[in-house]
Design goal:
- There is one protein chain.
- This protein is α/β, with parallel strands linked by helices and about 270 residues long.
- The protein has one domain: 3-Layer(aba) Sandwich (Rossmann fold).
- About 50% of the residues lie in helices and about 10% in strands.
- A seven-stranded parallel sheet has the order 3-2-1-4-5-6-7, sandwiched between helices.
- The longest helix is centred in the middle third of the chain and has 27 residues, at about 105-130.
- The radius of gyration is 18 Å and the shape is globular.
């Protein structure tokens, strides 16, 4: 990749907690001004105030559900009012639907598709003209290590992340002259106590593959600025990705079922990131 200027203004979705909050902190620590997006009632104003106070950067925000009609118009209007010049778009907002496909409601699966796929595509399409106009521009789409595997108990979620990965790789080629596009593919993220308690009972190698939001955020931004197409944080996860194509699919799905088959009962739909 040719030497490019670092981004100055990052628009981050799903920024009120977990990985999104960690990416916001990471970008602010590098001197970027931020525009944060999250659901209404997610305490986003407090997050923005905390980052502003600690990092001394400009932080604007909007609480909006990106799956609702008119959400992009509201976001575009807010960006215009603030004069925010996006040169880094981080599509992080996403949800899971954990459990056997036939035992989960169709509306739950549709919600995953609307946010993980449609909202990401819509926002990216809306901002492409803006990004192309910048001297240096970047897009970081958050997928998952599950994008590479059929995930039993996570069939719709893993399929949406496979879409994100494939979409991002194609978009990278289309925009290669003007925008750097990278895809972040983490394993399970230690986002809260419930997830941590479950992960801590897994075999040692699995525990070591599950990183904190801060570790993943740092790896994601570092990889994007180096021009990486696919960013997989953690050596174990890189090895899993490398050997995956050579392992029989029946073995992969069996391991996934054994390790994560009980996850839905314990987290009860919590928004864990895979």
């Amino acid at each position: 990749m040719k030497n490019r200027a670092a981004p100055r203004c990052a628009l981050i979705t799903g920024a009120s907690q977990g990985l999104g909050r960690a990416i916001a902190d990471e970008c602010a620590a590098r001197g970027m001004d931020l525009f944060l997006v999250a659901l209404p009632g997610s305490r986003l104003p407090e997050v923005a105030e905390s980052i502003t106070s600690e990092r001394k950067v400009g932080v604007d925000w909007l609480e909006v559900d990106l799956t609702h009609d008119g959400a992009l118009d509201r976001l575009t209007a807010a960006l215009d009012r603030s004069g925010f010049e996006t040169d880094l778009l981080v599509n992080n907002a996403g949800i899971t639907s954990i459990g056997l496909f036939g035992e989960s409601s169709l509306s739950r699966h549709e919600s995953v598709i609307r946010l993980n796929v449609l909202a990401l595509v819509h926002l990216t399409h809306r901002l492409i003209p803006t990004l192309r106009s910048r001297k240096a521009a970047y897009v970081l789409n958050v997928a998952s290590l599950g994008a590479f595997f059929p995930m039993v108990t996570l069939p719709v979620y893993s399929a949406t992340k496979s879409f994100v990965l494939t979409f991002s790789l194609a978009l990278r080629e289309e925009l290669r002259q003007s925008v750097v596009v990278g895809t972040l593919c983490p394993n399970t993220i230690r986002t809260d106590r419930t997830v941590n308690e479950y992960v801590d009972r897994l075999p040692l190698v699995c525990r070591q593959a599950c990183l904190t939001p801060s570790e993943i955020a740092r790896a994601g931004i570092d990889g994007l600025l180096r021009g990486q197409a696919i960013i997989i944080p953690g050596l174990i996860n890189k090895l899993v990705r490398a050997v995956g194509p050579f392992v029989p699919r029946s073995l992969v799905t069996g391991v996934v079922r054994r390790l994560w088959g009980g996850f839905d009962r314990e987290v009860n739909g919590a928004a864990a990131q895979f």
